[in-house]
Design goal:
Layout (H helix, E strand, L loop, with lengths): L1 H16 L5 E8 L8 E11 L2 E11 L2 E12 L4 E13 L7 E12 L2 E12 L9 E8 L7 H17 L3 E10 L3 E8 L7 E6 L2 E8 L5 E6 L6 E7 L8 E9 L2 E9 L3 E9 L3
Parallel strand pairs: 9-17
Antiparallel strand pairs: 1-2, 1-8, 2-3, 3-4, 4-5, 5-6, 6-7, 7-8, 10-13, 10-15, 11-12, 11-14, 14-17, 15-16
């Protein structure tokens, strides 16, 4: 019985670690002496695509005094760590004697009792003078609803929750099966014919990577950190058929010494997919 409990606990821990960290996170941001307030509220809304992070951050005292930033970042899936950098100030509603700090976050996923948490530290500089801001700590918890609705919370979360329902209504054709050299895999996707407004969503093992992206002659790029020996299925779902059906795409897969080109075709009846795994060395 004890052995069964140990196995069950290990399984539950692995299940928690494997969760998708995209979504809404809210909590507190502290600041060392010298800032406008010693403690702020912080809400971040993020989506993770492979190793890439994008989203919005709101640091605020209340809903009338806040700063809205856009951010980009990187994600280490194995260690569940994020590096986030605010790269654009979108809205400022703060007292005249306060200044805006452009911040960099270093966050790690943890499990606190029955709550998912992101914890870490931040540093930053004043947006105008570039003087160093007093740094601090961040503690965030996963939330279902935002304090500050954005297009991301309206569309991305809906896609994560409902996107698979669409996939179940179509058959999936496996176009190619690959064995790759390196766990760091770069995927580029182009329109394979005339640019005709083809729009697709990309899923990796039922997790959304790209949502309703238009295919052009410029690459849609995603980098994935795979686990050696694990099987993966990458599915292209046609959100529309463009002006010249079906949706056709050229996908290039780069992995260490390996580089492959795969042509995919998806319609309102069929998804296109590739399967791959990283070889053990």
């Amino acid at each position: 019985m004890k052995a069964v409990l140990l196995v069950l606990c290990s399984f539950l821990q692995l299940l928690a670690i494997s969760q998708d960290l995209s979504g809404i996170w809210r909590g507190s941001l502290t600041q060392e002496p010298g800032g406008c307030f010693p403690v702020y509220k912080l809400e971040i809304q993020l989506i993770i695509a492979g190793t890439t992070i994008e989203g919005y951050a709101f640091d605020y005292y209340d809903k009338t005094r806040y700063v809205k930033h856009h951010f980009r970042g990187s994600y280490d899936e194995l260690q569940k760590k994020m590096l986030i950098r605010e790269n654009q100030i979108l809205d400022v509603q703060i007292p005249h004697d306060c200044v805006v700090c452009t911040k960099t976050y270093e966050l790690s996923f943890t499990k606190e009792a029955d709550r998912d948490a992101l914890t870490g530290t931040w540093t930053g500089v004043e947006a105008e003078s570039k003087r160093v801001c007093p740094a601090g700590k961040i503690t965030l918890y996963r939330e279902n609803l935002p304090d500050f609705p954005t297009p991301l919370t309206d569309t991305t979360q809906l896609a994560n929750q409902q996107g698979l329902l669409k996939l179940k209504q179509r058959t999936t054709e496996i176009v190619q099966t690959l064995v790759l050299d390196s766990p760091t895999i770069k995927i580029d996707l182009y329109d394979n014919a005339e640019i005709d407004n083809d729009t697709v969503s990309i899923y990796l093992n039922n997790q959304l990577l790209l949502h309703q992206q238009r295919l052009t002659n410029h690459a849609l790029s995603v980098t994935v950190n795979a686990i050696v020996g694990k099987d993966y299925e990458l599915i292209m779902y046609a959100d529309n058929l463009g002006s010249i059906p079906p949706n056709t795409a050229l996908m290039t897969i780069s992995s260490g010494r390996d580089k492959y080109e795969v042509r995919l075709s998806a319609s309102d009846k069929k998804n296109a997919a590739i399967r791959f795994r990283v070889r053990k060395k």
